[in-house]
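Question: does this match?
>
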Amino acid sequence: MTDRYETLAARLDERFGEQITRVASNCGELTYEVGKDDLIEVATALRNEAEFGFEMLIDVCGVDYLSYGSDEWNTSSATGTGFSRGVEREPVILDEADEFDPKRFAVVYHLLSLQHNIRMRLRVYTGTENPPIVASVVDIWNGANWFEREVFDLFGILFRGHPDLRRILTDYGFIGHPFRKDFPLIGTVEVSYDAEKGRVAYQPVSIESRTLVPRVIRDDNRYSADLKDASDG
């Protein structure tokens, strides 16, 4: 990481103290985690205070860390379970009685300071609440409006104080949130033209259930180095 970013990191640590926590980076990027209760205060300071000046919000994105770091298949052998979540898992519909792992869902804010030509990221976890919810930053960066709607649509994360929080990519009658890790890849419904009703209508998905096995690395005589050399002459 360059000296400019290390200087910025020192200023951030001095200004916010325990309100933010630096996240280790392998690619020289500056990322901090902030508690959901401190999000608005920290974001406002990052935009307004001259030493930071992050006047532009580049992007807001959601993350689902369910099964993060675990593999579904082994590259050395084919199994009957590889990528099976596409047909075997049921979607999770919001249920007020359930709680999530406190670090399952996160919202990530990508910030740019034009006056200082520096970038950084903020990450806030939604906690155990179901539905997951964090404060909206629309009043700080107006460009967050549609970004937050997209996160709500695809991940089911609510933004408290958003002026118009409704779906933006999926259909009006869509059920569930398709970027959640436990949402089936084939979905739950499909649309087709119903001649009797004279319109497009929903119906249960009719894709044939099957286990999707990825390409595997095979170790047999077809890939023997001796045979390969012989065939090459």
About this structure: The two ends are 51 Å apart (CA to CA). The domain at 3-231 is CATH 3.30.460.80 (Beta Polymerase; domain 2).
